[in-house]
Amino acid sequence: MSLKAVLFDFNGVIINDERIHAKLIEELLIAENLRPKRDEFRQMCLGRSDRACIRDLLTSRGRVVSESYLKQLIERKAKSYQQYLETTEPLPIYPGLAEFIAKLRDMQLVLGIVSGALRREIEIVLNRINLAEHFAVIVAGDDLTNSKPQPDGYLLAVERLNLVYPELQLKAQECLAIEDTFVGIEAAKKAGMQVVGVSNSYPMHMLQRHANWVVDYLLDLEWERVQQVYQRAVSQPNPE
Length: 240
Hints:
Elements: E1 5-8, H1 18-31, H2 40-44, H3 50-59, H4 67-87, H5 97-106, E2 110-114, H6 119-128, E3 137-139, H7 152-164, E4 175-179, H8 182-190, E5 194-198, H9 204-207, E6 213-215, H10 223-231
Parallel strand pairs: 1-2, 1-4, 2-3, 4-5, 5-6
């Protein structure tokens, strides 16, 4: 078995935007006459799609809304976030990202994104930082019913990469996921992938209990060690 593909999370791995998402969710709750709670965003939303986040925040307060109203709330928050993306200069991209991606492409690895963020949000950022061409597939929150920690997004990314590169005959075990949250790491492992945890959202010592490798910065990753694992054909078991 060899490493063939690297799949990136988006929020917290590519862009440092936790603060703005937390602010927008808080504003949404206030507009709904609901009181935000301390640390609620990190507990219920970090690493998950807006749909899952907003739905669960409302449910925790006994608020049941229709699918159409939930969609309106998601769109309202998405519009505010996109205004932030289009007007902020420079975008808060994590350091070393472009160099890291260039290294992966030099290694002839194919790249994708698996995120709970909406597709248009991801595309705005990738186009603004001139990295869109490097990602063969994007699996976004609007492609999925189930949010992380379910593995659906990662499994769909493998399917789509095989459509783009049928000669790869890609399997989940031949992918490496890059995540910053516990729910993201769990999703990738459920899909049968090895995971690099980047300590952007949680301290390194907390991620070490969950991810296969943990780094402070993407460029710190020791590729020799990673490739040795894949060359030994060590992998997580397939989900049943």
